[in-house]
Amino acid sequence: MRITTRSQQLADLLSTVEILHPEASVETGLVTGRDVQFRLVPNARRPRMLVPAGSPRAAASAVDRPSANDTVWRSAPRRMLSGLLSTRLGSAAMPFGVSVHAAPDSISDYLQEVLGEPVLISLMVGSARANRKPILNIHRPDGTEIGFAKVGLSALTNQLVHHEGTVLKFLAAGRPTAFSAPRVLHHGAWRDHEVLIMSSLRPDRPQRKPQPPLAAAAQIAAVSGVQIIPIGSSPWVARLSSVIEPFRNTDDGLLTEMLDRYLDLYGDVELPFGAWHGDFGAWNLARTSTVPMIWDWERFSADIPVGCDIVHYLAHQVLRRRGDTAAARAALDDLSRPALSAVLRCEPATVRYADDPLLLRAITMGYLLTIAARFTADSHTEQGQPVQSLARWHQRVLADQLQVGEYSALLRSPERKKPS
């Protein structure tokens, strides 16, 4: 029995399976015992992922991915689904799957070769956007977990996967004490696709939304050193300008105007610059009995105003509520500012900046510029249409924030002193 009606979710999964098994015949239907079998989870109409049909233990493990972003209402359905898959009831409740016939030189063959043992894979693809790529959860045939793999499918995603592999090796060499990151198990290429295999991060305690991980954010900022530089002459502004300038005199020209406005207000101000994770949020970490586990390092970069990670951690999900200016203001001013100050107090090189309201605002506006530039650049890529409205919304939030009467007056006051 074949599945005759295909949702976009199913179509996306099937197209990814075909890319990862390029010479195979791929069919949907009832799960049977022949060939390579994946089970569609949680159903065939709107599946979120594919799991191994022949290993209840691997399937249950692949579905249950806890993070610090969990709530009772978010984690309970996932755990129920995992429990169901671990029993024979799973095959009855989710009888449809994907068969892959005759798949030489597939991604599974590659993973088995580089890992030196047979593997089972589960597959998830995110929502349509420029950086979408398959995430594979890798298990042994007995269901024990090996790790995760990312596979680049485009020039951008190949670049991101390659970059994340380099970053994880760099972090491992530094032996961080305030957080842990995945270990690189393999970094190579399959059919011109970047492949990064990483150890899995599984927490040892239930997840509840923790206090912001201030020490982790501060240590990430300092991993490649902290420099004090005037904003206008920083490598960060040079990179931002190269990204933003092409949008001048276009529908996204507001962003170039906001960069000009920001530099007019803060260009001579000295800020501490360091590294950032780039998508530092509860959705990309898990708390443990010791230090937080943090994953998804593909947006890591250096020479960013120190503290941008913690602003992202606290404000990003609020800023995704397009049209709610009051909530955006509260997230940036009331919620993020105290945590930003606390992060700056964690490191000797930045502590003197922790209580200066102008500098705190310059960092917050710097974060907004950085994330608005990212979304805007992504919106101009081949698969970037879904983030266009989010990019425009961040531009408007930035414009709202840069109407700064009291801060402009403070900046130009002759009585204002530099941090000492």
Question: How does this structure look, described?
Answer:
- The protein is 43% helix and 18% strand.
- By secondary structure, it is α+β, with helices and mostly antiparallel strands.
- It folds into 2 domains: 8-93 and 102-198, Phosphorylase Kinase, domain 1 (2-Layer Sandwich); 214-412, Aminoglycoside 3'-phosphotransferase, Chain: A, domain 2 (Alpha-Beta Complex).
- Strands 1-4-2-3-5-6-7-9-8 form a 9-stranded antiparallel sheet, with helices on both faces.
- A hairpin with a 7-residue loop joins strand 2 (36-41) and strand 3.
- Helix 12 (357-379) runs antiparallel to helix 13.
- Residues 404-412 have low confidence and may be disordered.
In short:
This is Aminoglycoside phosphotransferase domain-containing protein. This protein is 43% helix and 18% strand. It has 420 residues and is an alpha+beta fold.
